[in-house]
Specification:
Blueprint: H1 2-20, H2 23-28, E1 45-51, E2 54-59, H3 62-75
Antiparallel strand pairs: 1-2
This protein binds zinc ion.
Amino acid sequence: MEEIFRAVYCEEVADLFKMLGLFDDLMQGTLVCSICGSVITATNFRAATRKSGDILLSCGREDCYNQFMAQELREE
Ligand SMILES: [Zn+2]
């Protein structure tokens, strides 16, 4: 059950990155978390946002995600 859920989740991540035009970068491991600098993969990816033409990403760490979302709220 968990394996299926995980597969669905990864496909959604793939679709999102294709939409952002970053799928090749995701596969090549050149995308990094905008907070901690860790390489973003389909399994640790948590959130993405577009800011002045750049795509900012957050990995799955709670600290990163919270900081990432806090930045978002401040910008709005
Ligand atoms: Zn991070």
